User: What shape does this take?
Amino acid sequence: MQQEDPAFYWLAMARIRGVGTRTWLHLLRSFKSAEAIFTAENASLANHGLNDDSIQSLKQPDRNRIDSDLEWLADPCNHLLTWNDQRYPALLRQIHDPPPVLYVRGDPGVLDLLQISIVGSRNPSADGRRNAREFARNLCGYGLTITSGLATGLDACAHLGALDVSGRTIAVLGSGLDVVYPAGNRSLAENLMRSGALVSEYPPGTRPLPVHFPKRNRIISGLSVGTLVVEATLSSGSLITAGCALEQGREVFAIPGSIHNPLSRGCHRIIRDGAKLVESVDDILVEIIPSLTVTNQAGHEPAKNDKNLERLDGNSKLLLDNIGLQPVGVDTLVSETGMEAGVVTATLLVLELDGLIEQVPGGEYVRSNG
Assistant: This one.
């Protein structure tokens, strides 16, 4: 195979049929790069479990489609985050089947911010629409980023709630980023992109097939420290997202409702299965940011933290010791401190709210001058 642009091989990975996510991750861990996989000898690929059809497809990628993907990538709003990219979101990297490639339209730096996913019915009640929007607004008020799936109904309400307060929000699609689904949410997608990002593991031009959405849900939960289910029937896809969150070791929250409302039954089921019953935003905050004091007063304004360094807990001190005047990212802090990515992102938010650190472009952090 002739020498190619390094992005070519990563784009080709998403275009090869018959090779799944886990197989690609196995190959990447063995060969260390996408290029090394595509230039490997057939016998070596066979030794790593690929059959003849997969090897043939890998050796003859669809260059026309990949060239089209490279043209898409030339747009400054479009980005490709690969498994080997330092910008790849740290929390998503921890799940058992992270996508080796992410297509991003907007700001890729928001993917490493502390996120809460809000999901629910595509045919919600008026109370459900109001709750999704209000919870998104209030969580954004604490500096959290809202992640959802851009679907009709409560997903859209969650995104709109974030935009109401100029908050950051991320939409994970089950299609290519140039094929916004549903089409009625195209305007929402464009507005969302200005303060956040559209994300997909599927290359441009991919249609929104039903099989894509359950896979999409693992990314929604995988990017987030917790998932809030607002309303859901027993057959709702939101329960798949909640199940993914539980499997990934993330927090799951649910808003209860009337026993006579079918839209409450999914929430009641996952509460019985261990999800935390939620009545206010404080019920979420105390789980994901236990060191942040919150109130139950109207407006949910966070209490001011004492900036005295002697009052910081051990995790905060350890992180602060590893943050100086040069920008540092979450992956580096995880590596330097040995702390879990979820703990790092939660502690960073506390330090930022406390005025001890500042976030700079690219999702990295520096010591505050204040």
Q: What stands out?
A: The chain has a mean pLDDT of 88. The first strand starts at residue 78 and ends at 82. The chain is about 45% helix and 10% strand.
